[in-house]
Each structure stands twice: as structure tokens, then as C-alpha cells.
Amino acid sequence: MTKTTLKKILVLHTGGTISMAEDANGHVHPNAENPMVSATIPLDNIELVTEDIFNLPSPHITLDHMLVLKERLIRAFNEESFDGAVITHGTDTLEETAYFLDLTIPRGKPIVMTGAMRSSNELGTDGIYNLLSAIRVAINNDSRNRGVLVVLNDEIHSARYVTKTHTTNISTFQTPTHGPLGLLTKNRIIYFHQDTEHQQLNVESAKGKVPIIKAYAGMTGEIFDMIDIDRLDGLVVEALGAGNLPPQAYEKLKPLLSQEIPIVLVSRCFNGIAEPVYSYEGGGQALQESGIMFAPEVNSQKARLKLIIGINAGLKLASLKSFMEN
Ligand SMILES: NC(=O)C[C@H](N)C(=O)O
Q1: Tell me, what's the pLDDT at 130?
Q2: Which of 84, 105, 194, 281 could be bridged to 110 by S-S, CB 3.0 to 4.6 A?
């Protein structure tokens, strides 16, 4: 008979729809008592330690909350011998917290994030099922060294690529271009892909003014004139296609580049990888040659977090560029 060892898992509740309930008017809001705390999890050989670290809708989550989560997880693994951690979180900004933790905590023990699209007392609520799935993934030995994982609706996604794609559907979390890392079946956890390693930086702060600006047809770039360059720490531009800008918008970025403000480019396309392809005016080749950094496989909200982490780690332009481009 094989002996199964007891796994000690830390469950951190942060709020979101998974912790909310619907009232008689159909309005969904947070509760004083988090219904997930009393949820029955039908799994053997686990010791669950549950903490209500926050009780916030995820649009209220800031980078300071992410830093608190990071510190709590590092302590849990280094000093309290936890074998893994599960975080419940609102879905609106779940991908950002997941990526922040992925970039700041060294890989090793599983960290799994989950949430719900239907609150705790709604018909067809997905909260407890997703929590159970996340715990199953966290206790699975194959989940080690994969970075932060996002588990909802029987799918396992990597923090770097996953994104919320639908306002209400329970299959909202998708990984464009690559597809999920793995799946949960009734009895198994199956991984199909291995996410590639990337550099982690254990920052103590996450400060900085880094807006995101989206490109569009006919963009003249006047928006860049409205930015107070002296207060700006960096900029993320959601460019067109493979990574191109209308010529007038590109012109307006030149003064920022000459002041050594880091500018990071991502594509506004849902699928694919941003790279310098075109040599016409405003094309990706010219943008890269002028010093704009390409963040090839992340969306703008994740590129922004990565840039803030790089800046707070004290990276100067050349090392910031290699951090952002890998
Ligand atoms: N499904 C959800 O959790 C959405 C909610 N607005 C939140 O992110 O807190």
C-alpha cells in the first residue's frame, strides 16, 4: 500500500465574487462572513489553514495589497512549512495579482489562484467547485516549479498568459495563443505544457506612475502632450498589430525617449506575439531602434506591472530592457 503524506495548504481569501452573495434585489455585494471559510472540502490528507487576509472586490486591490500577499506567501513557505498555497480573488484583476506574485516569488511550491463568476448563493455558483479544484492542483506534485497558476472551470493557466475574456461566462479565463497549461478531470490533474522560466525580482515596494495608452487608427498622439513628463516613471503603449504606431503618435514619443523614460510596447491584438517587423514610419523596426522596449507575450496590464517591478528593483535602462523583453 502506498503511503500518502499529509499536505499543509495555506488558503488566503482576498474577497471578490467568490466571497460575495446576492440580495433580494439581485445586487451582489461582500458579506461580513466569508462563505468560503465554512465551505466543506471533501479531500483527504490535507491540513487547510484559512486566513481572510482581505475582503475586497478586486477593483479595490492595489499593488500594496499584492506586496502584502507576496510577503505572506514567502513567510508561509520559508518559516511555516506550508506545502502550497491557494488564493481566492475577484476575477476582474485576478490576472494582475497572479502575475505580480509570479514575478516576485521564486518558483517552487505551488501557488494557485481562483475565483468565481457567480456569487455564493446564486444558482449554478462556481465558487466552491473552483476552490476545491484549486486545492486539488495545489496538492499535486506536478504543480511544483510552474510559477503561479490560475485554476477555474476545470482549466489550469499560467499567470503570465491568462486573461479574463468574458464579463459573465464561467469559462472567462483563457490563455490566448498557447491554450491552458493543463486540465482537471474527475480524477486527474493533467499538464500538457511547461511554462518557460523567467526572471523573478523580490521587490520591497511597487511604486511609480506608469499609465497605459492604447493606439487606434488616426491617433495623433496629442494624449502624450497632456502627460507631465516630470511625474512620469514609465509608459506602456498598446500598439497596433505586430507592434506599429501611427506616424504622428510615434513623433510625440520621441521627447519622452530623449528623457530616458522607459516606454514598453505590447500589441492590442488578443492573440500572437509583438515583434519589430515593419520598417515604414511608425513601424515596429523604427520603434525598437528608437529605444522602445517590446514586451512580447503579455498584455498591457501585465507589462505595466512588470515595468513597475523592474523600476522598483532599481534596474537601469539596459537591464530593464532585457527584463522586459524576456
Ligand atoms: N467575478 C468577480 O469576482 C468580479 C468582481 N467584480 C471582482 O473582481 O471582485
Answers
A1: 98
A2: 84
